[in-house]
Amino acid sequence: MCNNRWSIDCDILRLEVDDWELAAVHPVFHISMLKKCIGGPSLILPTESIRIKDSLSYEEIPVQILDRQILKLRTKEVASVKVLWRNQLVEKATWEAEEDMKKRYPYLFESGGNAD
Questions:
Q1: Distance in angstroms between the alpha carbons of the first and the last residue of the chain
Q2: What is the pLDDT averaged over residues 68-80?
Q3: Hey, where are the domains in the chain?
Q4: Strand duo 62-72 + 77-85: pairing
Q5: Which of the four CATH numbers 2.40.50.40, 3.30.230.10, 1.10.230.10, 3.40.190.170 does domain 62-109 have?
Q6: Are 96 and 113 in contact (CB under 8 A)?
Q7: Is 108 exposed, middle or buried (0-12, 13-18, 19+ CB in 10 A)?
Q8: What pTM did the predictor assign?
Q9: Confidence (pLDDT) at 95
Q10: For the segment 35-57, what is each residue's pLDDT rounded down to a tens digit?
Q11: The organism sits in which domain of life (predicted)?
């Protein structure tokens, strides 16, 4: 079980981490790095649907291909797809290499690109 504690010294927020899995996280944050959360009930996700692992991580699962583009480099063209991820808003969709996505998630490219 992770025994985390927060302490605030002036304008510095410090997280004391006892869990070795979180040791790579920098434990000190300047207050200027923090953002005020102004949200409503629509932004709250039930943790049961996210399936958080014991290591406090979860797997992002792509749900749908939203768009496709071809980037022209000097010697080749690279196809990219805009991916909507589960438990994320459309605004948080990311551009990924189409070739990698086809290898990892072939079901997205079969009949319309919907996972559900």
A1: 34
A2: 93
A3: 5-50, 62-109
A4: antiparallel
A5: 2.40.50.40
A6: no
A7: buried
A8: 0.53
A9: 94
A10: 777 777 777 766 666 677 777 77
A11: Eukaryota
